[in-house]
Amino acid sequence: MSYATRNDKDFSLEHKTKKKKSFVFSIFSSLLLLAAVIGAVVAVAMIFFLKDITNTLPSYQDMLDHQPSLATTIYDRNGKVVTQLFQENRTWVKLDAISPWMVKAILAAEDDSFYDHSGIRPVAIVRAIVVDIFHMGAKQGASTITQQLARNLFLSNEKTIIRKAKEAVLALRLERIYTKDQLLEMYLNTIYMGHGAYGVEAAAKTYFAKAPKNLTIDESAILAGLVAAPEKYSPFRSGKSSQTRKAYVMRRMLDLDWISKDDYDSYLNKKPALAKRTARTNSISLEGAPYFVSYILFKQLLPHYGTDKIYRGGLKVHTTLDIDLQKKAEEIVSKMPHEGALIALDPNTGEILAMVGGRDFDKSKFNRATQAYRQPGSSFKPIVYATALEQGYRGVDHILDAPLLFPNGWSPSNYTSNKYDGEITLLTALAKSINTSAVRLAQIDGVGRIADLARRIGITTPYLPDDLSVALGTASVTPLEMSVAYSTFANNGYKVEPYAVKEILSQRGESLEQNGPKLTSAISPTTAVSLRSMLEQVTGWGTGARAKIPNYETFGKTGTTNDWTDAWFVGGVPGLVVVVYIGNDNHKPLGGRSTGAVAALPVWKEFVSYAVTEM
Description:
Helix content is about 45%, strand content about 10%.
């Protein structure tokens, strides 16, 4: 039996330690290699994952071309806001038009290191991912303002790790193409702040009825606090929750040394005055000239520009409306016992100054000022008399007031059916609204000539009868048509084209459309002045005597139909023509002896008396 010779050092402690180190080193090396392989696999997977994500995200050019959804604003003739049309209630404001307290509050609440990072906070993202993984889903927030902006502009609100990855990539892209101030301005104009308000402009007006540049410290803290949960922290819904969130934001501002301790103590428990909430059941404000707005919306805006441009394009629509006159008209019409309409026109330009199509837009969208074809009664007679004047007749010429009977059995009578004055002047016949004289004058004029003059001065209705009954107002016309016709008498013979939109600007301020007066010579100045002079006698001593506006040359004519179904007063003063129509939609009589002088004239006079003090 042989034994191999072995050295003593093989049994030494030093030799055994080396063998042990060699084994440990081998294990450690294997683990490092395994980690490197896993890391490489993860890195490759992440590269393909990010590449796949990147390919589905908006490009740099897409980001530059992105247009936010902005509200279209309707202005009156003096630049006052009438209402807004929108899918998202948002009006863009520049960063320097926002209160510095609002800027500080939003940074304190959402991202105080905004001006220092590159769009993401890696440590916060890693922390969030770890928490999300352990919770098997997105639980931890770590979004910077830039990431929130990326999500608001291009992504959904789904809480997934993939969405967060996309958010981070987009945030880095945004930081490369925009400055920090630009990003903050975009953020402040896109965030949702509850109750339909998108952006700080809409929020400032919704909650505090003021411009964002005027926001105080506490108001800014309240608005900044909304971003986390608009409905939860709404001061309209829960004053307590709103106050708690406001206190948090103000404490953050104090800790960052962005407000003083005195400011903190002064505003912490102060309760700012909230704006009065107004219900909006659709994208047309019920308090902002709804009949007028719906008129321009469906007649001009939507047909010419389309839904997307109007509700998302941020247009500025400057109209002819006088909002003060409009509000007065709405107030007066709302008090009428029956349905009706009021329309006011500038007879020299055709500008629509006020338009009310009913007592309550919320209950009835039917615009009686432009859509209701009703008989104008005696308010149509001036057209008959104007036709006679064109044929050479004068107001002092005579016409017979006596009973009439036609072969077909038609026997028109006067309002006072048993009273006839015999031979009277045309002026007296018009001032007293004598029916028999008007019919006789129509026989002299010829129905064709009456229709021709009516068309020339703005009567466009297809419902114009081709018989002598036209003299008594049996045509069916709209109040808008009548306002145009009487404007011809007011402006010395020119027919005006009624219009409601002066100019439309794009969101960048470019002029897309401009409109102005369109006048066409319709009747001679002599005819117009003579007829207007006769109508001044109507308001002086005739059927419209109670319409006289002191110190103003007032002209006009009453109108009443059979059985007192419709009542009108049409007339004006220099620079203004107003039409008031009253009648039930189901054509039922108004009740009593509701003539134009009784029902419509008082409404007309109340409005015009107000208007002359405002114009």
